[in-house]
C-alpha cells in the first residue's frame, strides 16, 4: 500500500492525483464538466456530472499510475467550497441543480438579514462576512423554491451538503452523510469557536437541523468506499476545502505561516493557530483543519483574504486589450521596461475584495503620459496583482499580531518569475515557490496519509516540502512604502465609481 489517491473536485474540472510516499504526483487525470448559467448572476452545476466525472478520473488516475486500488493506503478529498447540494436520502437524487459559490441569487436575502441587524452577530459567530457567496442562504433558497422541499426537509427526508459531503455520500453508497469543519465553516451555519452547528444561526436562516451532515475531523478515517467503485474498499481518511487543503499542502503548520494561490483570483490563507482571530480588517476567519483532539493537528484556524482579479487581469490584457497572445507572454513584455513609469492599473473590474470591499469600484488606469507603452501597462498589471496581495498580507499581519516571515506560493500565475520578484519587493518578505505545484491535492493526500500512518507526522511532511525557487526582496523600505502609498491613492480613485 504505497500510494494515496487524492480527489480534487474543482469549480470547472474534477481531478484525481496519485501520490507516492515522497509526496510526488505519480499520475494525474482531469475532466471538465458543464457550467450552467440559467439567469444573469446564477451559476449551477449538475451534481450527477460532478460525481460521474470524479469517479471517472479516480479510475483513470489509477490506470495511468499502473496500480490497483489495493495499493492505496487511503483516499484524501478536497473540493470547491460553498457550492450547495440538496438531495433525497431515499433515492440519492439531488432535488435541484447544485448552486455554485459564484451564484448571486441570494443577494437580496443577505440584504434582508443585514437590514434586520444580524450581520454583526453572524460575523461574530461564523467568522464570515454576510454574503451570498456562502452556502447558508443558498440552502435556504432551495428549501423555499423547490416544491415541497421545506416540509420534506423537516421530516428528515432530505440531506444538505457541500461538494465534500455529496462525494462521500456517493463514494459510500449513501451510508455516510458528513462534512469536515473546514467546509462547515463556510456555510454561515457553523459556530467557529465551538466547532459545531449553531442553533441560533439555523433559526436565523430557517434551516431545519434534520438536513445537516455530521461533522467529522479533517484528518481521520471518515468512511470506507463501496468496493464496487474501485475494485476494493478504500478508507477516505482526510478532507478539507480547497484553499485550506492548499495551506496544508504547503506545510503551513505553524501560526504565522501563509500561502497565496495565484489563479483567476488570489486566495491568501494564514495559519493563526488554535484560536480563531476576529478580523478588524474584514478578512474571513475560518477553520483550517481539524484532527483528533489529541493530535498535533487538533483544530487550527486561518485568516483568509481574496483578491478577485489576479490571473484574470492578465487574461484581460490578452482578451480585452489584446496586448499579448498568451498569458505567459506578459512576463517578457513587462520585463522590457524597468518600471511602470508611474502608471497604475487598479483591476477593480468586479469591484474590490478584502480589505476594501467596494462592489462599486471599477477598473482604473492612471498616470499615463505620451511616453506610456503597452509594456508599462503590462508591468502595471503585474504590480497590481502584487500590490493587492500586499494589502491582504498587511491586513493579516495587523489582525493576527503575527510577523509573517515568508509567503509560500502556488497556482498558475506563480510560474511568472517577474511577478514573484515584484511580489517579494512589494511585501518586503521572501516569496517561496514550492516544488510540487499540485498543492491542493497534496494537502488532501497529506491529511489522509497522516490519519493512516502513511506519513509519521508534521515533521516528516515539513521535511518533504521543498522549495523550487525563492525570491528575495530587493526594494528598500522607503521604496516600498512610497509605492504602497501611491497605490492606495490609485485605489481611492477607483472606488465608488459605479454608483
Ligand atoms: P484557476 O485555477 O483559477 O483556473 P490557474 O491556477 O490555472 O487558475 O491559473 C490560471 C491563471 O493564471 C489565468 O488567469 C492566467 O491568466 C494566469 N497565468 C497563467 N500563466 C501566467 C503567467 N506566466 N503570468 C501571469 N499570469 C499567468
List the keywords:
499 residues; alpha+beta; Nucleotidyltransferase, domain 5; six-stranded mixed β-sheet; 17 helices; binds adenosine-5'-diphosphate
What does this 3D model show about the protein?
With 499 residues, the chain is of the alpha+beta class. Helix content is 35%, strand content 23%. The protein has 17 helices and 23 strands. It has helices at residues 47-65, 107-115, 119-126, 135-145, 149-154, 163-171, 181-184, 199-204, 227-230, 242-249, 311-320, 329-335, 374-400, 417-427, 439-451, 458-464, 477-494; strands spanning 3-9, 13-19, 25-32, 44-45, 72-79, 84-88, 98-99, 158-162, 178-179, 190-191, 196-197, 214-215, 219-224, 235-241, 258-262, 266-273, 284-289, 300-307, 344-346, 364-366, 406-410, 430-434, 467-471. The strands form 7 sheets. Strands 17-18-16-15-21-22-23 form a 7-stranded mixed β-sheet. It has a 6-stranded mixed β-sheet with strand order 3-2-1-5-14-13, with helices on both faces. It has a two-stranded antiparallel sheet with strand order 4-7. A hairpin with a 3-residue loop joins strand 1 and strand 2. Helix 10 (242-249) crosses helix 15 and helix 11 packs antiparallel against helix 13 (374-400). The longest helix is centred in the last third of the chain and has 27 residues, at 374-400. It is globular and about 70 Å long. The relative contact order is 0.12. The structure holds adenosine-5'-diphosphate (ADP). Residues 263-264, 311-312, 314-315, 327-328, 330-331, 411-413, 415-416, 419 line the site of adenosine-5'-diphosphate.
